[in-house]
Amino acid sequence: xxxxxxxxxxxxxxxxxxxxxxxxxxxxxxxxxxxxxxxxxxxxxxxxxxxxxxxxxxxxxxxxxxxxxxxxxxxxxxxxxxxxxxxxxxxxxxxxxxxxxxxxxxxxxxxxxxxxxxxxxxxxxxxxxxxxxxxxxxxxxxxxxxxxxxxxxxxxxxxxxxxxxxxxxxxxxxxxxxxxxxxxxxxxxxxxxxxxxxxxxxxx
Length: 204
Ligand SMILES: Cc1ncc(COP(=O)(O)OP(=O)(O)O)c(N)n1
Ligand SMILES: Cc1nc(C(=O)O)sc1CCOP(=O)(O)O
Ligand SMILES: [Mg+2]
Known about the structure:
With 204 residues, this protein is α/β, with parallel strands linked by helices.
């Protein structure tokens, strides 16, 4: 399976409606602390926009809602994975991405036979408090040799300026939140990400 090299992560359908039409091809809807009915409504809106723009939608955490809403890709962390019904996820035909932060999590993730593995935080992140020190680029290269042939997603503190480094060290896709959503001009920054990842998309 191939992932687009630019992996946008946002916390609402409104962001997806705003940024996906610019040419984003891989987006995660990562909503925290909202009512289930609101999250379901946002999944529906996100799904419609992504279908119209040939963008792969990945739903974070809410695997039951993703199944019920006919989505085809979810992302789970290790705590999510511990309580998820993998058989139901497979039965529904969902593809699965998993987070990893250390050796034990990598072993757990590989045993679950995911469709991609994410490693983070590569650099310090301001989005959430993390229990892990930044992993760095050497660790990313090591992870690639361990997860290959699965795609490897780099996440945490990524910026346009850091894109080349993660791809040179084994990432297949670079996931980003705040470099775009907290930029004064999210549309321009999204276009900068699309341009900066072009050569890693096989577009020369
Ligand atoms: C691509 C990607 N990688 C890692 C994460 C983090 O997932 P998780 O550890 O479950 O933490 P939350 O995002 O749920 O806070 C991710 N969402 N996406
Ligand atoms: C949601 C998330 N998960 C991480 C992990 O390491 O698993 S790092 C992270 C935050 C990514 O946001 P930003 O691009 O703003 O740093
Ligand atoms: Mg999670």
